[in-house]
User: What shape does this take?
Amino acid sequence: MTLVFLLFGVVVGLVTLALRSQLPLQRSPIAAPPSGFTDPPALVLTQLPSGWSEFEQAVQQAASLPDTAALGARTLVEWVPAPANRPDLHGPLRVEYALDVALTERVFKVLRKANARRAHAIVLDANSGRVVSYASTDVGAFPPNRTYPAASLIKVVTAAAALKKAPEAARRPCRFTGSPYKLTRSRLHPPRKGRESSLERSLAMSNNQCFAQLAVNAVGDVALLDTLDRFGWRDSPAPGHDAGIVEPVEGEYELGRLGCGLAGCRITPLHAAQLAMALVRGERVTPWWIDNVVDARGRELRLPPLPAPGRIMSEDLAQELREMLVLTTTGGTARSAFRNVRGRPLLDGVKVAGKTGNLSGRDPKGRFEWFMGVAPADRPSIAVVVVQMHDDLWWQNSSQLAASILHEVFCERSRCRAELATRYTGTLGDAVAPVFLNDAQGVARNPVQRLSAIEAR
Assistant: This one.
């Protein structure tokens, strides 16, 4: 009888293994972290290997691990010491990043080829907030966590505020005189005669007069500041990053300059990333790039829960803005960047909704030039941000760099398809690290699981 039970157990085990071999691997989060888990030090959460030397070191450290195969080929690893005031931790701590190695190497290659001496380039999963790539060419002179002039990126915020508060006025053609980029006090109100521009065209061509008029005559200081707060531009976008700065508005001229981006607002590159992701569903999504933290004894530390996405605007309004912003890359300030030498669309049928911006600043001194956008414009899966600090000599603008980066994401062997972005989005793979639910609502750190939890709300 004992032999019969043993044989039965062996058969059941073989059948179970055979069935499992036919199922796709999945990361199944448990209901709560096991006993003994503790929080990582706050300093660990600020770690970001965005510079080439930091990135290269993290790649080498991952390769040196005996369990590299288990961690996965795309994993970045960095060791940081445990702080002296945390005797409960056994250092050094192993930080496993969510950044994609292959894509980040390609992004650095794009930046080096363009001789972008002071630049930040960020690629994100536009739905989950996972930072897929963060590449910086000079973290000393141009730190990734500091604020820089927001320039014309703020026009997207002004447009959102106007479409919500005064939709009829926002959709009415703007009238302006002279150069659309020159703003004076006399041009804060529509002239009797002049050229006209739709809101879509004003966004595409970055018309300063039209957006100053919109801020002064349709939005107002209270509504504009409230919208900036909903976008999170006076908060820190992620651990270790400065809060955005919005200067006090003391009159119509200051309000107009703020609304069109000529002055009054400073943001970090991750603020721009949040702006891009807000165009997907109208929500404020927190960027994240750390997947797991393990101490020297192999104990996984409990990562803090990500804030739930906050409603900024309706999904319909987000879609309307995306549709308008396509003109930036097809017939506006970024048109040439998104076309090849033959004048054809660089990404074939993958349309990009984006916004450019450039403005001179003094802290540090230079000309700051932005591109932020999402693609594909109809159903975004990727968000991209590029910002450069130019001096007198530069090779490619930020729109060109962003176009080249998106080409790496969506194109292969001279063919571009939206589904190719799935190489860099979605789950990180089963073997990377266990996934734990860190909040009562059950928002997982796994991007796909987290996205499902968000959509269920």
Remarks:
- Confidence is low (pLDDT under 50) at residues 1-37, 69-73, 429-457.
- Residues 147-267 form a domain with the Beta-lactamase fold (CATH 3.40.710.10).
